Amino acid sequence: MTQTVLWLAQRITAAILAVCVVVHLATIIYAVQGGLTAAEILGRTRGNTAWLAFYSLFVVAVAIHAPIGLRPVLGEWLKWRGVSREIALSFFSIFLVLLGMRAVIGVFA
Amino acid sequence: MSRWVAHVHRISGVALTLFLPLHFWALGNALQLDSFLAWTEQPLVKLGEWAIVIALAAHLGGGLRVLALEFLPLLDWQKSLAAVAAAVTLAVGLALALAL
Amino acid sequence: MRVLVKRSSAFQEFEVPRHPSQTVLDVVTYIQRKLDPTLAYRYACRVGMCGSCAMTVNGVPRWTCRTHVDRVARNDELRIGPLKNFPVIRDLVTDMREFFDKWARAQGRFQGGRTRHDDFEKVAPDSPERKAADAGIECIGCAVCYSACNVVAANPEYLGPAALNRAWTLVKDARSVDVIDKLRAVAGDAGCHACHTHMDCTERCPKRLSPTAAIAGLKRATAKAALKGEL
């Protein structure tokens, strides 16, 4: 049952991330033209609630997708299985959410 | 062939997972961004950026292949080709765009 | 030609005469009958129907009776070994028990609900369900797919492509009364969710079946059942 739910979460976030990644890369390529300065970037992003929402979704999707993806790698290559793996991955997920939202708020709030 | 696409998919996934916390941490230090941006001008960092973009393209391509195989009733061999093509196109396009 | 046969941990070398239309099974049989009677190997039908003669030929699992030497020999040399992912009993003979135990764990057996007093289940041969089942029912349990799979190698619990393929054909069988039980048996780290679509099984299956497609079907079916709260 749980693996089924994980599988579903993985595929759904994959579809969300496919869209997010394409948007993100297109945006970055556009923004990178003509060099980067902090003021330039932050001038565009600060206070922008639409982008804040978009990147919040991006962070949450990644925080779900990456640990689930890492799970079989740990199990097959490091032979790490059992509850300790699930706990470690849950912490990693929370870590990504915290660090990610810190970045999102720092750039867009 | 499919096995190599799957291996690349896995390796790129691991690389991205390792990169992501760094990316978030750097962005979270938004106030010091200019000094950080100066650091990113170094050639090794540029190489790393390009590698991450390739990893992203490869992972996206491989991922689209998995989604296609799991959800669409297409012929199996076609799916491998399609995703490899997608990943390569995306990677090349991005690499070119970033180089501009 | 030079033939290297894996016996326990080392390769033993033999010189075998080459003939047109010679199969790898011909080669192994020649070695055992003319050169070294102590060589242990399995075969039965020798015409590509039973799957008993499966071995690793130049690194790849194949039916040796259906593998022509001309197709696989490299520089007039052949390397023959037992099927990978199995414990070796002796020389080219492997212990197949786990393969069949996993088949049973995947509930790879039919469970119907009708008796001789009931009418037949009417199954339309061109219904999508039946077509999906038909695509996988020709499996003879030769274990080439299981031998080719590197998830089997990395994950000792993994039920494997053949068992899951069979489970799928039964899930799609309109007469099966225990579909949810079957889905429960194949969901999880040992089941369909451990498949990473490397597709070695599909590539190597001598009957041209696609366990990858069957496993994908199981992934979708288990997800659907989970969303409905049935799993």
Descriptors:
heterotrimer; B: 100 residues; mainly alpha; 3 helical TM bundles of succinate and fumarate reductases; 0% strand; C: 231 residues; alpha+beta; Ubiquitin-like (UB roll); Fumarate Reductase Iron-sulfur Protein, Chain B, domain 2; 2 domains; five-stranded mixed β-sheet; two-stranded antiparallel ribbon; 36% helix
pLDDT averaged residue by residue of chain C: 95
The best one-word shape of chain C is: elongated
Q: Which regions of chain C contain 5 or more consecutive residues with pLDDT less than 50? A: none
CATH architecture of the largest domain in chain C: Orthogonal Bundle
| CATH topology title of chain A | 3 helical TM bundles of succinate and fumarate reductases
Provide the CATH top-level class of the largest domain in chain C. Mainly Alpha
Fraction of helical residues of chain C = 25-40%
Order of helices and strands of chain A: HHHH
| Total domain units of chain C | 2
Q: Enumerate the spans of chain A where pLDDT stays under 50 for 5 or more consecutive residues.
A: none
Tally the structural domains of chain A.
1
Q: What is the name of the CATH superfamily of chain A?
A: Fumarate reductase/succinate dehydrogenase, transmembrane subunit
Helix content of chain A: over 70%
Portion in beta strands of chain A: under 5%
Tally of separate helices of chain C: 10
Describe this structure in words.
The complex is a heterotrimer of chains A (109), B (100) and C (231). Chain A is elongated and about 50 Å long. Chain A has a single domain, classed as Fumarate reductase/succinate dehydrogenase, transmembrane subunit (3 helical TM bundles of succinate and fumarate reductases, Up-down Bundle). The model of chain A has no long low-confidence stretch (mean pLDDT 90). Chain A is mainly alpha-helical and 109 residues long. Chain B has a single domain, classed as Fumarate reductase/succinate dehydrogenase, transmembrane subunit (3 helical TM bundles of succinate and fumarate reductases, Up-down Bundle). In chain B, helix 1 crosses helix 3 and helix 3 runs antiparallel to helix 4. The mean pLDDT of chain B is 80. The model of chain C has no long low-confidence stretch (mean pLDDT 95). Chain C is of the alpha+beta class and 231 residues long. A five-stranded mixed β-sheet of chain C has the order 2-1-5-3-4. In chain C, a hairpin with a 2-residue loop joins strand 6 and strand 7. Chain C folds into two domains: 93 residues, Ubiquitin-like (UB roll) (Roll); 131 residues, Fumarate Reductase Iron-sulfur Protein, Chain B, domain 2, CATH 1.10.1060.10. Chain C starts with a strand and ends with a helix. The radius of gyration of chain C is 20 Å and the shape is elongated. In chain C, helix 3 runs parallel beside helix 7, helix 7 packs across helix 10 and helix 8 packs across helix 10. The chains are: A mainly alpha (109), B mainly alpha (100), C alpha+beta (231). At the B-C interface, helix 1 and helix 3 of B face helix 9 and helix 10 of C.
